[in-house]
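Researcher: Next sequence.
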Amino acid sequence: NEQALRQCGSADCRVYPVSPKACGALARSSADQAWGGAERETLDKAKGEAVDRCKTHTQTGTCVVHVSGCNK
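Model: Next structure:
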């Protein structure tokens, strides 16, 4: 958690730990500050849900996965 916060570079960063045996993803918009995150049982599902959630917060941007990984 501490390493993730140091790498973020902003006082507004927050850490969202992924449950054991789960995968997480964070998608960001290319045009604005929109983002979406998700935790699911597979990496593909987490990525897809993160992009879908990001899309609900942007009008003009294209949402892409910025970071993802699994605790398995």
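Model: The mean pLDDT is 89. DSSP finds two helices and three strands in the chain.
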